[in-house]
Amino acid sequence: MGVNLILIAFGGSLGAIGRFLMANAIKNWSTSSFPKATLFINALGSMLLGLLIGNGSGEDTMFFLGVGFCGSFTTFSTFNWETLKLLQDNLKWGLIYFFGSYIIGLGFGVAGYMIGLVFK
């Protein structure tokens, strides 16, 4: 159990740093108020998690990358906050973001899973 906690903690710290750097890069690149950074990061994290599962990754890899890295790289709380803000400001874009995030996340997860199966 101790080793698993270390793997999760280390993976989580890298995921959090990666999320911060990627979100800032995307925000600096675009002037739109649409939360595309969270959408992109969550889609990318879904793909990585799908790839790990499809590839049959071992327990250590899943603790480090799946639980640790993907768990902190992606975020449900930011997604919820941005969805509520969009729904208040513009109902149409809020609904597009909400449903689009789930559809894109599932799609990227399936794509990652399929890629993982190929490279198993």
Descriptive overview:
With 120 residues, this protein is mostly helical. It has one domain (2-118). It is built from 5 helices and no strands. The protein has helices spanning 2-29, 36-54, 59-73, 76-89, 91-118. Helix 2 (36-54) runs parallel beside helix 5 (91-118) and helix 4 packs antiparallel against helix 5 (91-118). The mean pLDDT is 94.
Mean pLDDT: 94
| Largest sheet composition | none
Our Rg estimate from Cα atoms comes to: 15 Å
| DSSP, total strands | 0
What are the SSEs and their pairings?
Blueprint: H1 2-29, H2 36-54, H3 59-73, H4 76-89, H5 91-118
Helix pairs in contact: 1-2, 1-3, 2-3, 2-5, 4-5
What descriptive keywords fit this protein?
120 residues; mainly alpha; 0% strand; globular
Short description:
With 120 residues, the chain is an all-alpha fold. 87% of the residues lie in helices and 0% in strands.
